[in-house]
Amino acid sequence: MNKKNVWFITGCSTGFGRELAEATIKAGYSVVVTARNINSISDLVGDAPNALALELDVTKNDQIEKALTSAVEKFGGIDVLVNNAGIGYFGSVEESVEEETRKMFEINFWGLMHMTNAVLPQMRSQRSGHIINISSIGGLASSPGVGYYNASKYAVEGVSEGLAQEVEPFNIRVTLIEPSGFRTDWSGRSAARTTSSIEEYKPLVSDFVNGVNHGKEPGDPKKLASAIINVVESPNPPQRLLLGSDAYHIAVNKFTKLLQQIEDSKSVSIGADF
């Protein structure tokens, strides 16, 4: 990927977005750095000539259009879109508050799709581009206490798979980034939670939520940023990239068991045809 190409990154105030913005600016790319509160990213951009800070709430279409217009005016176009903005939610499925889970879907799924659909016409016309969707190992394997969060990431996975096939003829790539626990403040800052009131759920949900090692996660955010840059620079980027040892082991365990279940039910599956 040529360093003259333009990156557009959402959700840069903290966490993955901030690390990636810092790394791409330092590497010499032209970078559009966005966040709902522009004051939270002004220090990232400073007076760097290759960076532009913009206010952006991905749930507001008028802000999306305004930000894209400013990006094109400054740098001439967008080559890499990183859909990073997202939030979490802790709570059993039965106890979760619909208003909160819908808010999460508006950001994690619909915000991502509105950004993607706004950028695609330009990428199609230039016959190139790369869309990086920040998913999660939770988009491949679910856990108790985060069922709705899992659902939002499964939705991102599903639409990304279909989109990748649709835009490949236009030389546009789509890559899903699937991290496990990384040392950011996501779980404390960007995740709402419902306190369990149903006694039967408390042990299961609490064990998982309390097992999230806030601030002690094994993943290194700087290495994640470097890995994403390498994906974009690759001549044959993967459609999926697991990041973190936990992500690797969880995925292998899930799909090993799933494949065995598929094989165990093979005769029933095939026998359902006319």
Write structural notes for this entry:
There is one protein chain. The protein is 49% helix and 16% strand. The protein is an alpha/beta fold and 274 residues long. It has a single domain (6-268), classed as Rossmann fold, CATH 3.40.50. The strands form 2 sheets. A 7-stranded parallel sheet has the order 3-2-1-4-6-7-9, sandwiched between helices. A two-stranded parallel ribbon has the order 5-8. α5 (147-167) links the parallel β6 and β7 (172-179). α3 (61-75) packs parallel to α4 (98-126). The longest helix has 29 residues, at 98-126. The mean pLDDT is 92.
In short:
The chain has 274 residues and is of the alpha/beta class. The protein is 49% helix and 16% strand. Strand 6 (129-134), helix 5 (147-167) and strand 7 (172-179) form a beta-alpha-beta unit.
Distinctive features:
274 residues, Rossmann fold, SDR_fam, SDR_oxidoreductase, globular, alpha/beta, Short-chain dehydrogenase/reductase, 9 strands, 16% strand, oxidoreductase activity, 7-stranded parallel sheet, oxidoreductase
**Spatial ordering of strands, largest sheet:** 3-2-1-4-6-7-9
**Main sheet summary:** 7 strands, parallel
Mean pLDDT: 92
Q: Please identify which CATH superfamily we are dealing with.
A: NAD(P)-binding Rossmann-like Domain
Give the secondary structure arrangement, pairings included.
Blueprint: E1 6-9, H1 15-27, E2 30-35, H2 42-45, E3 51-55, H3 61-75, E4 80-83, E5 88-90, H4 98-126, E6 129-134, H5 147-167, E7 172-179, H6 186-189, E8 191-193, H7 202-211, H8 221-233, E9 240-243, H9 245-264, H10 266-271
Parallel strand pairs: 1-2, 1-4, 2-3, 4-6, 5-8, 6-7, 7-9
Helix pairs in contact: 1-8, 3-4, 4-5
